[in-house]
Design brief:
The chain is an all-alpha fold. The chain has one domain. It contains nine helices and two strands; from the N terminus they run ααβαααααβαα. The chain is elongated and about 55 Å long. The chain starts with 7 loop residues before the first helix and ends with a helix.
Length: 209
């Protein structure tokens, strides 16, 4: 018995369907009260930002591949380019959709339990509400949400890019490269966003006071 190997077109089609279903579920399952004030789905910032940063990220992670994997420059760039294309086009939207479903499931429970749990519930709501913010006026909340999202995006990118890279290098080396490369890029984004969020919060607190 022989098994047909799915073509790249079939894989892309299935990926597009998965993204559509997850994103659609995230929107359709959102509580009606929240739909009245739609808030900010952070994917509208995260995905364009990842596109803008795509070339610098590819070059940085290629430099890591060249050093860690001892690859020629051209091969390192090719490995990084393909891996980052997958993590940008698939990893970010799918991860965001899954996190949004988690927010819709856990967020209302924590909101109802806020009086019982006290500050703990508020602290848990900060990262959980990052995928889809409620209506906000403070810019620091958007920056803080972006910083929180760097963490799950990091793990998703490591997994996806390691799977992509292991087609060209041994699996252990691919995982080692993906961890170091994404630590460099997402570490920078996390620190930058957290710093700007802090500056924005201090500015807002000062003007409010």
């Amino acid at each position: 018995m022989s098994f047909a190997v799915p073509s790249s077109q079939d894989a892309c089609r299935r990926l597009a369907i998965a993204i559509g279903l997850l994103s659609g579920a995230a929107i359709l399952l959102w509580p009606k009260a929240a739909l009245a004030n739609a808030g900010i789905p952070m994917i509208v910032f995260a995905w364009p930002a990842s596109g803008i940063a795509f070339v610098p990220v590819v070059l940085v992670e290629a430099a890591v591949a060249r050093r860690v994997l001892r690859l020629p420059t051209r091969d390192a760039i090719k490995l990084s380019l393909v891996a980052n294309a997958w993590s940008t086009l698939a990893g970010i939207p799918i991860t965001w959709a899954l996190l949004t479903v988690l927010e819709m499931t856990v967020g209302p429970i924590l909101s109802m339990a806020r009086d019982d749990l006290g500050p703990a519930a508020s602290l848990l709501l900060l990262p959980i509400s990052a995928p889809w913010l409620g209506p906000v006026e403070e810019g620091w909340r958007v920056l803080a949400a972006g910083a929180f999202l760097c963490v799950p995006f990091f793990f998703a990118s490591v997994w996806i890019e390691a799977r992509s890279a292991r087609r060209r290098v041994p699996a252990a080396d691919a995982l080692r490269w993906a961890k170091r490369a994404n630590s460099a890029t997402y570490g920078f984004f996390l620190v930058a966003l957290a710093l700007f969020a802090l500056i924005s919060w201090m500015s807002h607190a000062g003007s409010a006071g």
